[in-house]
Design goal:
By secondary structure, the chain is mainly alpha-helical. The chain has seven helices and no strands. Helix 2 packs antiparallel against helix 3, helix 4 (about 105-125) packs antiparallel against helix 5 and helix 5 packs antiparallel against helix 6.
Amino acid sequence: WYMVASGLKDDPRVSHFRLALHLSTAFLIFGLLFWQWMRFSGWGRASTAVGGWLWALMAALCAQIVLGAFVAGLDAGLVYNTFPLMDGGWAPPELEKGLSLHEPGTVQWLHRLGAGAVFLLAAAFGLIRVKAEGAALRHYGAMFLLLVLAQAGLGIVTLLYAVPVSLASLHQVAALFLFGFLLSGIYRFTQTPPGVKSVPDGDVHASLTRTL
């Protein structure tokens, strides 16, 4: 209601900030439920040294999801429907007025930058950082990078076709799946907390393979 009420004024359009808050709350509820499901379903856990990388990826992904909500709330996907340039430039002319989260073109540009940041982090994680780790983590890193590439490709297609509802909805669902997949990695591969028995890497690999 807090979100909807913002659109019951002179302009029948909800606040993109409140839309982002609404979406973030939904992701938080999903994340908490999914975490508990993994916990009580007996998913294997293993101690690794990549916890910092996974949490950095989560921070970048969450920021990108919030920017996606801004894009949706401002209809920013309708202003520049070319890629990689934005109607001939690498940045929108709106930036000349300063960085504003109320300008659709600027928000779309930030969402593009966010996608690049998530991709670079995922590539560094999947191709470099986990190279010396066990087979399960290497497999996970490669899968995460492929999912990021698929999500980025879907976002580009959605933009080029002027954001049809079907593609936009699929893009949002894919973001939720990507969030869940990353959360599963944090659960599996971060430092095992006290009182939780660590399991061999092979057991985690077998569990991950069955899940996929």
